[in-house]
Amino acid sequence: MTVHIDSDRRLLRAVLAGTFDPEDAERTFVEVLDAVALRKSHVVLIDGRQLAGEPDVIHRFLYGEFAALTAKRYVLARRIPDAAQFAYVLQEPVLDPMRFGEAVALHWGMNVKAFENPEVAMEWLGMGAGSGMLSGRA
């Protein structure tokens, strides 16, 4: 998996590509959190529409738990804001129609939601499509 990160004043956008791998997913999420800390972002769009693969239930659980607990560690260390908001844009089969990983992350206190549509994700993030961050897939 690869990650390309860009940002404007309000939004950090991470574009993931390749084949889903649990270890790579955790590594790239830490890269995203490091970029959030560096750029002091509050709003994060993780665009995984270029990911292939079909994570099984246990990997969805483990990733959701890892993401939430790692984000919480960054918050407690005051590296990222407590109110940081994460939207994932994915396509099936990487996107679980039951949103199990999302439910796990929410349970652990992460402000996160998964979407199929990037425009709907931007609305949930409180951003208009006019941010310019949706055009192109980096």
Strand and helix layout:
Layout: E1 2-7, E2 11-19, H1 22-39, E3 43-52, H2 57-76, E4 85-89, H3 100-107, E5 112-115, H4 118-124
Helix pairs in contact: 1-2, 2-3
Order of helices and strands: EEHEHEHEH
Helix content: 25-40%
Q: What is the domain tally? A: 1
**Total of helices:** 4
Q: Order of strands side by side in the largest beta sheet? A: 1-2-3-4-5
Apparent shape: globular
Name of the CATH architecture: 2-Layer Sandwich
Radius of gyration: 13 Å
Main beta-sheet strand count, sense and barrel state = 5 strands, mixed
Structural class: alpha/beta
Please write the CATH class name: Alpha Beta
CATH-defined topology: Transcription Regulator spoIIAA
Describe the structure.
There is one protein chain. This protein has 138 residues and is of the alpha/beta class. It has one domain (2-131): Transcription Regulator spoIIAA (2-Layer Sandwich). Helix content is 38%, strand content 25%. A 5-stranded mixed beta sheet has the order 1-2-3-4-5, sandwiched between helices. Helix 1 packs parallel to helix 2 (57-76). The longest helix is centred in the middle third of the chain and has 20 residues, at 57-76.
Task: Report a brief summary of the structure.
By secondary structure, the protein is an alpha/beta fold.
